[in-house]
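Example S7 (structure tokens).
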């Protein structure tokens, strides 16, 4: 583990004065520490995993995408 990376993260944290941001950061780090990578994915049923892969595959085709204007038309 890079000592420089840890030092820079600690320095950033020490400079934060916003208590809510610090609490959010703490909660995020605790969550990441407790939950191993891929845990949530592995808990998903196979059908859900396959649906997600299919959605990602379909999103690669521009014909399946809609523009921002189509999705969020401007109000008159």
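Recovered sequence:
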């Amino acid at each position: 583990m890079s000592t420089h990376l840890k030092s820079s993260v600690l320095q950033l944290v020490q400079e934060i004065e916003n208590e809510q941001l610090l609490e959010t950061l703490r909660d995020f780090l605790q969550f990441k520490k407790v939950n191993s990578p891929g845990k949530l994915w592995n808990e998903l049923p196979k059908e859900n995993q396959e649906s997600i892969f299919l959605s990602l595959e379909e999103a690669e085709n521009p014909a399946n995408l809609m523009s921002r204007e189509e999705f969020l038309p401007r109000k008159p």
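Notes on this example. The first helix runs from residue 3 to 15.
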